[in-house]
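Example record

One chain of 167 residues, shown exactly as stored in the release files.
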Amino acid sequence: MAFEQKHGIATKVEFTNAKSTTLDPDFASFEYCFLKSVNRTYKYLSVKVNLHKTSVTKVNVNVAIFKRYNGYKPFFYNVTVDACKFLVREKPDPIATYLYSMFKSYSNMNHSCPFDNDILVEKLPIGFINQQVTEVLPVPHGDYLFHSNWLAYDINRATVSVYFTIS
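Predicted structure tokens for this chain:
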């Protein structure tokens, strides 16, 4: 049980914004990238990337977590992973495994390379993220940015940024 629950303090994660940017529109484009509030307790994130060049066999992902102080400053992790190798043998990198676990169940990125289809993260609920952030690896209160760069063949093709608050 999380420290907060044991001591009667409620911790809550809330999505505040999501931004996706295509850096190479000939390679890929975002069909959608949005947050949706269904009601006061159910909010989710959905992202769909249309790959215009398929059979992608070399993908690296750089993920950095920032905390807002006076602007966003590096806070937690800044890790780059060879996605093709990682998806074959997920266990060796505990940081990448933890970050991947945040969206794995809500994504079609569950196989090794090549990537031949559009990539989805569909209806990732804030309740699931809340559990991961407050129970699995507790994180201090504040405003955060999860920023990712998606590189194919060593060229940055897209970025995805998800802003959230922990209170």
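Notes: The longest strand covers residues 71-82.
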